[in-house]
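A favour, since you know our C-alpha cells better than I do. Could you add the entry underneath, on a fresh line?
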Amino acid sequence: QVQLLESGGGLAHTGGSLRLSCAASEGAFTNYAMAWFRQAPEREREVVAGIRISGGSSYYADSGKGRFTISRDNAKNAVFLPMTRLHSAATAVYYCAAKRSTWHIAPTRYEFWGQGPQVTVSS
C-alpha cells in the first residue's frame, strides 16, 4: 500500500503560480510511475502531467504545456508540479497518483491516489 500526501494547493490569482508537492510513503518509490490529475466540478478526471520512474521522460496535457513542470526526487520519495501563469480553467482538485512500472494517461490505470488539494484561480 502506497500512501500519497499532497500539499501546496490553495488560491492563486490569474497569472500567478502555485507549486504542488506529493510525498509517498512507499520505500520502493522507484517502482512507480507518477502523475498529476485534476478534476473540476462536473467534469471527468483528466491527466495534467506524468513522469517515468527514472524521471528522464515526462508527458504534459495541452492544458499545461509550457506552464507546468513535473519532476520527481526519488531519494525523497516525492513528486512536484510547479504551475505558472495560472488561469481560471485550472481551478480543480488536483490528485497525485502512482502506477506500478510504466505511466499511463488513463486515471483508471493508477493504483494509489492522494486526497487531492483544491486549486482555485481567481481574477
